[in-house]
Amino acid sequence: RDKVYKPVVIPHDHMPRLGQEFVLLDDVHEFYNEYAKKVGFSVRINSSRKSHRGEIVRKEYVCSKEGATTKEVVEKKRRCSKVREGCKAKLAVVKSKSGTYVVSVFEEDHNHPLTTPRRVHLLRSHRNVSEVKRSLTHQLAAANIPIHQQISVLELQGGGIQNIGCLGKDLYNDETKSKNKVKGHDADMLLEHFQLEKEKNSAFTFTIESDNENRITHCFWADATSRRGYNSFGDVVVFDTTYNTNKYGMIFAPFIGVNNHGQTTVFACSFLSDETTESFVWLFEQFKKAMPGDLPKMIITDQDPAITKAISETLPNTFHRDDFDRNWLEIIEKGKLRDNAWLKSVFEIRSKWVPAYVNHVFSAGMSSSQRAESYHFFFKRYVSKKNSLLDFMIRFNRALNHQRHEELNANHADINEKPTLKLPLKMEKQMVSLYTREIFYKFQDELWDSLQHKIELVKEDAHHCVYKVVNQNEDDDVHEVLFDKTLDFASCICKKFESKGIPCKHILAYFHRKQFTYLPDQYILKRWTKSARCDKVIGDGGLEIEDCFQNSILMRRTALFQLASNVIDKAVISEEASKILMDDFENSLRKIKSVVSQDPKAMEKNKCTDQHVLNDPLVVRAKGCGKRLKKRKEKARAKDKNRRCHGCGKIGQSHDKRNCPMLKNR
């Protein structure tokens, strides 16, 4: 006779009984599962019966060890164990005439040992990845925290690994399930993400292009903060492409610039399926439509013929900074000077002397696309080539928020920290109140160095004055300052003010000579001041572009968690206070369940969109994707490294069983 295992004695109100009534089937499952957790077994649904109207009129819940394994044992790589032992413990409910569900069958005894309280959290029905936990793990994944480390976070939060409510493999399975759930819907979810952003703030703009199969080929977007930033700092734009940011191999192409703190700021972003002139023309046209204010004075790119041609078509009046490299190569080719050692050495140090030919155009101190390359390096810490388009957006927004927080931190420092003044000059006091800290320090260095220069008039006519400015410590450091009497404007041959927007030490030396107390307004660029972002920005249709922030599930979770933590910290020191809090939590939980069950937004949260608009993009191979195409022989050699000979059993051999030396010698 089989041994019978009696459950432990538990309070009567937690014990199922015949005739017990429930309003919903979910209440039945929750009650029986809680009972199972206290007793020490796992629950699963065994069967259900429906009426002719499709209503469930009977449902049976059993111990997970009910029944027996009937499938034949098949040899598999993954070993599976038998868990069913023919246990008869169960609970069944039937629907009454009043519409409630009544317990009609309850079998209490088990034919197997029950699990101890220390191990009950390992049973399947007592493990669950809740919606809040899922939201948190998704956010941790967006921070590039792997699942095995996420478990540590949940363990600390729950006060022990047994209190997490799930295991690591449950998180892995949930991740796989989430990916399978959205498979084939990535493009639609990206579109939905953009539409939601547009609902939050009408100043968010995006454009998606697709081919004749409705597959995404081009995508452009810019939020309100980026568009406002362009209005203040869009005089110089850096454009560059990068790769390996998503699983489709689409090229990521951001437009970036520099803000009033000298930090990188993003104006707009895009995905492209190719790098043709047509694609770049489309992209630059979208950029022009989306950005408020004037077109950029300068655009800096790498040397790409397709980009160069597209810029000449769409931004003909914008100075393009890669012109020098292209023209240099043309001259070298025409003159057949490719092997000239001196020209090669001069070209290597071109960054030191080329600016002399382009410094008449404002570049905000940027001389190449190196800022874009450093931004890509920063940005790729957040994304990977395994990301879906939606995953990319989540990680991209996180990187963007970190970048914008650096600007917020710099603004905070400008308000609360005053730089130390070096000189008893009113001009220095004037500019410390106007410039941001980063720019003021650059101006202060120029002002300090200007005192080491002497200036003398060398030429004057009805319209101009020419001054020679000499460094008193270095006689060969000589510059010329030209003063235009008509324009009432002084300029230096170093062109620092024209290219960087900060008066050079030579012009400041001229101001000392003329006994200027304050820096004239025409030498103060607003883009470098603390008030650079203060202007109202008007977009298409005359509407103001404003920043707007919306709450998310994680923000609500953070606020609730902080409040709950504060309450718990105060209640835990008193047994009476802890009991009061437990009672309040249980009452709140019942009310919340009722509210959530009737909330259409909560019910729709996990549903995938039914409307299929776009297809996922094809995987593209960009010229900078980093993977080299292998020849046939190279592939064969790589295959040989993993080949196993079924004669000798060795791996990585060039022979097989037919010509195995070991078999031949037998």
TrEMBL record:
Pfam families: FAR1 (PF03101), MULE (PF10551), SWIM (PF04434)
Recorded superkingdom: Eukaryota
UniProt keyword list: Metal-binding, Zinc, Zinc-finger
InterPro entries the UniProt entry points to: FAR1_DNA_bnd_dom, MULE_transposase_dom, Znf_PMZ, Znf_SWIM
One Gene Ontology molecular-function label: zinc ion binding
This protein's record includes keyword Zinc-finger: yes
Protein name per Swiss-Prot or TrEMBL: SWIM-type domain-containing protein
UniProt key word Zinc-finger: yes
Matching PANTHER family: OS01G0519700 PROTEIN
SWIM-type domain location: 467-515
